[in-house]
User: What shape does this take?
Amino acid sequence: MRKNSIKNVRINSEVQRALSSIIRNEVKDYRLDGMVSVTDVYVAPDLKTCKAYISVLGDAEKLALTIEGLTRAEGFIRSCLAREVNLRNTPKITFIPDTSIEYGIAMSEKIDRVRETDGE
Assistant: This one.
C-alpha cells in the first residue's frame, strides 16, 4: 500500500475521529482537564504505528501534562480503539504535542508588528 493512498487517508481520518471521541468520553485522568484536540493522525501503511498530534487549550505546561496522561493511558486507548475501529492490527500510538497553532499566532503577531513599524 502506498503511503498516501486513498485507503490510508480514510484510515487516518477514521482513527482521528475515534481517538477524539475516546479521549473526550472514555479517558478519565486528572491531567486531561482542559480542551484536548487531536489535530492530525498518521497511521503507518502497515498499521503497526500511529502518530497522533495533540493540541491543548492552555500553556506549554498543560500540554506536557496532557501528553504525559495520554501516554500513560495508551494501553487503554488502544483497547478502546480496537473495539471502535475494525483494523487488522491496532497501531501503537505515539502522542506528539502539536505547536502549529502557537507558531501561527506568533507569526501573525510578528507580521502585525512589522506592519505597524512600516506604517510609521
